[in-house]
Design brief:
The complex is a heterodimer of chains A (about 250) and B (about 240). Chain A contains 9 helices and 10 strands. With about 250 residues, chain A is α/β, with parallel strands linked by helices. Chain A is globular and about 55 Å long. The two termini of chain A are about 25 Å apart. Chain B has one domain: MetI-like fold (Orthogonal Bundle). The two termini of chain B are about 45 Å apart. The chains are: A alpha/beta (about 250), B mainly alpha (about 240). At the A-B interface, helix 2 and helix 3 of A face helix 7 and helix 8 of B. Bound molecules: adenosine-5'-triphosphate and magnesium ion (MG).
Chain lengths: ~250, ~240
Amino acid sequence: MSGKPAVELEDVHKSFGRTDVLRGIDLAVAEHEVVCLIGASGSGKSTLLRCVNLLEPLDRGRILLDGEEITAGGVDVNRVRREIGIVFQSYNLFPHMSVLGNVTLGPRKALGLSRAAAEARADELFARFGLEDKRDAYPDSLSGGQQQRVAIVRALALRPRLMLLDEITSALDPELVAEVLNVVRELAKGGMTMLIATHEMAFARDIADRVCFLDEGVILEEGPPARIFSSPQEPRTQQFLARIVEAGRL
Amino acid sequence: MLVLIVVNSPNWEEVKEQFFNWRVFKNSFPDIAEAFKTNVKLFLTAEVFILVLALFLAVLRSLPGPVFFPLRVLSTAYTDVFRGIPTILLVYLLGFGVPGLQLSGVPNSQFFWAAVALVLVYSAYVAEVYRAGIESIHPSQAAAARSLGLTHAQSMRYVVLPQAVRRVIPPLLNDFIGLQKDTALVALLGVVEAFRQSQIESAGAFNHTPYLATALLFLLLTIPLTRFTDWLIARNRRRELARA
Ligand SMILES: Nc1ncnc2c1ncn2[C@@H]1O[C@H](COP(=O)(O)OP(=O)(O)OP(=O)(O)O)[C@@H](O)[C@H]1O
Ligand SMILES: [Mg+2]
């Protein structure tokens, strides 16, 4: 890992009622670094990302963005969220707005850009990600892959310094996965700092600078993808990857 | 069948004369139609205030966090109270009660207080309709809006409410229909609207046909709206099916 950290998690704890989901997460993501979170279903990947975006309050620990503690009281959460883009598994596009409306809402209302400036920004992104012809379409007329690309573009329109991607391909038909992953590759090439929860091991191996294996609320093992995938040290990591291989997903 | 029973009943001739008298109908209709304008005016004025007040109540009730607990309670109490009181009672209470107090600076027009009564009752119902709409929007929509840095108010304004309102238009229209009919209640206060006018006409002519004229006017107003509402519901259902 190199460069100064864009985001740091220190001893992050989170439980829902009596379920301890995160039990002491320490993780730093450097600027321009791509970190993939892998782990069984229910291991807390989504919760971790939601905590970073301040959608869930922490029980203990803290999170820093560019050295500023964003989990401290009195921090303007809306300002922090403008700095951090998040994309969910289920796209969550706004169905009553066109693609353009979806993408310009944040810049106009949260950043206060004029309509013209917001649209210029959107058009730039549409061109970059091949969505020009979908500009005026409504979400329900788009394929899942297109919707997810729009969701990514919607987050990018705020020019975030960090992108959080939560299983962004797991709701997609297999033939639509590639177009979405290509968008993420393009982002990585552009130097975007990203924290990605994924079940796509081949993709993680390909794109990640570092892979973290999440197990029972802690990061049990981490390292470069080549090492994690070919010679995992922890028995639980080995088990997890063996199951993945069995399922034909690696 | 029903028609046959009615037409062959022993008293039919007399009833026909009493309720279906063309001459009386023709004579009374213009005045009743004139008075019906009051119903329409009352309905339209009340509706505007109902839509705004109800939306305000519903939004209050959806405010998050413990800070807003008192406001949520207030809004809940309001809807409980005004949905619980029979409309006719409230029309009486306000229509006779408030002008009776002879307060200075307070309007004494019975039309005004009748409108207030209808607004109070119907906004409680409509607030519940709005609330159901707001709650039917999946929380992930608000989360997506918040994740873009929008404030709670902005996410309500631009993401949740537009979808919620669209979804509840049919039940809202149903409440409108109820309101249109309930405008006749203000006759109790002596406000001359269609129903009151038909009472006057009927007393003058010793004949009940004017009531029929009034019923017809109400139907002319409510049936198109009912048909439109059903059409909207059917269209929404088709869309939902197409999406699934
Ligand atoms: N809002 C919530 N309320 C209660 N429990 C929750 C909530 N959100 C998550 N959990 C629980 O926390 C645990 C971790 O969930 P999380 O969604 O973070 O896992 P995940 O690693 O993302 O799983 P998946 O791979 O299935 O997406 C699960 O047991 C889940 O049931
Ligand atoms: Mg998840």
